[in-house]
Structures are given as structure tokens and as C-alpha cells.
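Help needed: design a sequence for this.
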């Protein structure tokens, strides 16, 4: 695996990604001469542990659940939008 510095990676990102995609190249990314990461092709995209879309969906589901829980115990004469509007002034 060839080493590539962060600056060179930034300058040649498109070329490097093309090599990774087409030639299955692998790189060791360095910062000030020390290895910090590897850049390599994904073998099977479907095997990735976490997909961003599913994590986002889980986060929104949790926020909605918490919102409903808060609403059940709400004891103010004002709703949440009125309170937020006052806080922003």
C-alpha cells in the first residue's frame, strides 16, 4: 500500500478515488509522516455495519418517542412553540 499525505490526498482526491474504484488500489494516509488511516475499496457495500439512512431513521423515531413522552406530562398553559419563541427573543 502506498503512503499518501493529507495534502496530496486533498489535491488529488478525484484521481485517487478513481484508482480505488477501478484498480482496487489501497492507500495509507499519513499526517506529518505518520500513518493515521487507510483508504481502500469496500468489498461488499451491503455488509457495512451501519447505513447512515437507518441510523437517521432510528434517531428520528427516538426523538418522536421522547416528544410524546414529554407531551404526556406537560403541565404548562403555553405549548412548546410559545416557550421556544419566548426563549429566542
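Sure. Designed sequence:
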Amino acid at each position: 500500500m502506498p503512503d499518501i499525505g493529507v495534502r496530496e490526498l486533498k489535491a488529488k482526491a478525484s484521481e485517487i478515488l478513481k484508482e480505488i474504484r477501478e484498480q482496487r488500489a489501497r492507500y495509507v494516509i499519513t499526517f506529518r509522516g505518520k500513518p493515521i488511516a487507510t483508504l481502500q475499496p469496500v468489498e461488499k457495500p451491503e455488509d457495512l455495519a451501519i447505513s447512515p439512512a437507518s441510523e437517521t431513521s432510528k434517531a428520528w423515531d427516538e426523538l418522536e418517542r421522547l416528544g410524546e413522552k414529554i407531551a404526556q406530562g406537560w403541565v404548562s398553559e403555553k405549548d412548546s412553540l410559545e416557550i421556544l419563541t419566548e426563549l429566542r427573543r
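Residues 51-87 form one domain.
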